[in-house]
Hints:
Blueprint: E1 8-13, H1 19-28, H2 40-48, E2 53-55, E3 62-67, E4 76-78, H3 84-88, E5 98-100, H4 110-113, H5 136-139
Antiparallel strand pairs: 1-3, 2-5, 3-4
Amino acid sequence: xxxxxxxxxxxxxxxxxxxxxxxxxxxxxxxxxxxxxxxxxxxxxxxxxxxxxxxxxxxxxxxxxxxxxxxxxxxxxxxxxxxxxxxxxxxxxxxxxxxxxxxxxxxxxxxxxxxxxxxxxxxxxxxxxxxxxxxxxxxxxxxxxxxxxxxxx
Length: 153
């Protein structure tokens, strides 16, 4: 992105706060929805076997955000999928979102870009705890950006 701006695809959608909804979206088209009487383990095995790249429909896109000042968590701003050029300049657009199950190890690079993120495990990005103010910063926290494994509270 221009001027060193990072765009983050959150682990939630604009209309849903569930990472499972985002992660499971591409597999709905492959028949990976639950089958009556199917155990969770069997479904997980079937989903893990869904090879290839899967394009997400617009309705399943994650929420996209950027920071006006990368060192200031409260400066978080949303960018809509069709508004990249208005926010970042002519020629910048989001062409699509795809997911794929791969064997590569997971790399947790979010803390390298957002070194303050670990301080927001129990508070929202505006620094408030257990409140849901009507601001984007007040509705986001650490787990909207990444899910380290194992997770330590």
